[in-house]
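Researcher: Please translate sequence to structure tokens.
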Amino acid sequence: MGNFLEYLKTRWWGQLICALFFWALAVWDYWDTGRQEREYGYVSLHFVEWMIYSKLGKWGCVCFWGFFGALFTFVGVWNLVVRVVTGKRENE
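Model: Translation complete:
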């Protein structure tokens, strides 16, 4: 599994897959936190998200995951542009 993650992190398309994963986490976190706020009046989160939520609220948690989504999106698109401009192949 470790080699698969390294493979994903070093390929432009793998970085975009990772970006989609983090964007999906941000959307799910927004939906789940909002649902908990509406239905229960309190929010049950893991420790790291609870720390962010206690200081920055729901949007802080969403921005935390969105930051990584944006980072992987930028790096994946950057590597794709470099690949197209230089004409290099994936295995070079």
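Researcher: Any highlights?
Model: The mean pLDDT is 87.
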